[in-house]
Write a structure and sequence with these properties.
This protein is mainly alpha-helical and 190 residues long. Helices cover 67% and strands 0% of the residues. The termini are far apart. The mean pLDDT is 96. The structure holds guanosine-5'-diphosphate (GDP) and fe (iii) ion (2 copies). The site of one fe (iii) ion has 5 residues, from helix 2. It holds the Pfam family HD. It catalyses: P(1),P(4)-bis(5'-adenosyl) tetraphosphate + H2O = 2 ADP + 2 H(+). Keywords: Hydrolase, Iron, Metal-binding, Nucleotide-binding.
Length: 190
């Protein structure tokens, strides 16, 4: 699957606003990849496809998780995280993308996880700081993203957990594990 085919696939499956968000994530991710010496082609393909499943019916995604034996704990934590995990599965099945680095970047783009790959980090961060995100907390993350990929990912996780806690939304364990991973590593680095 080349970029043109990937863009074609998401143009079909996303609404206009979401497609424009995707274009900004691709630009942001490409910049980060260059800055931190991460494989730009993989990053761009994962960024193009990261929200592929965003508008799939929730019931369909829940059924896919059960029928295909994906992690069933996903069903307990609210519908927002499904499009990432099921999206990676659909991208593999429907678009025949088999590159593990691309697939895991899609899979963990919402929650993050402990020991993220470089491609995962870049897509995760780009989705959070793309220029269309206007909430106040993003500015500090943008500043760190100029120089320190791990610190920027850590702050993204901290802000996301903070946001979810304030809204009393359940937090998927991968998000906590990612937070702890960075917290411990950044502290050790100092
Ligand atoms: P988008 O698809 O570009 O809108 O962005 P994301 O895929 O990053 O996030 C979608 C939503 O998932 C956001 O509203 C987040 O607050 C929410 N989210 C992120 N992490 C978690 C989590 O651990 N648990 C739950 N329930 N929601 C989360
Ligand atoms: Fe998403
Ligand atoms: Fe997104």
């Amino acid at each position: 699957m080349n970029e043109e085919q990937a863009f074609h696939a998401v143009r079909q499956s996303l609404k206009k606003r979401r497609f424009e968000h995707t274009e900004r994530v691709v630009e942001e991710a490409a910049k980060l990849a260059q800055r931190f010496h991460v494989n730009v082609e993989k990053v761009r393909l994962a960024a193009i496809l990261h929200d592929y499943a965003k508008y799939r019916p929730i019931e369909e995604m829940r059924r896919t998780i059960k029928e295909k034996g994906l992690r069933t704990d996903l069903l307990l934590y609210g519908d927002e995280i499904l499009h990432a995990f099921v999206g990676a599965y659909y991208v593999q099945q429907e678009l025949k993308v088999n590159d593990e680095d691309v697939l895991t970047a899609i899979k963990y783009h919402t929650t993050g996880r402990a020991k993220m790959t470089q491609v995962e980090k870049v897509v995760f961060l780009a989705d959070y700081i793309e220029p269309g995100r206007t909430f106040e907390a993003v500015n500090e993350v943008r500043d760190w993203a100029e120089k320190d990929l791990d610190m920027a990912c850590f702050l993204t996780l901290r802000n996301t957990i903070d946001f979810l806690v304030k809204k009393e939304i359940p937090i998927y364990p991968d998000t906590f594990n990612a937070y702890n991973d960075y917290c411990l590593n950044i502290k050790r680095r100092k």
